[in-house]
Task: structure prediction
Amino acid sequence: MRPSIIRFSLIFRELFATPRHAGVLGKRDASAFARGRQSAGHATDPMSADKLMRIIVSNTLRSAPTRRVA
Result:
């Protein structure tokens, strides 16, 4: 694994290592992540999980240009 990915994952884990985020970490699918994120209070829009899922399953992310991050 690249060092930049390892650093990012450690920062991500530290940011989300609070009881408030317990419903988000460890989710194995996007829908559970989106719903856990919403129930943890990360969204004021009651439709945020549904909106996030529409983006995830659409071609929006798949068709976005990719670039290497050093």
Summary: The chain has a mean pLDDT of 75. The radius of gyration is 14 Å. The CA atoms of residues 4 and 69 lie 8 Å apart. The domain at 3-62 is CATH 1.10.530.10 (Lysozyme).
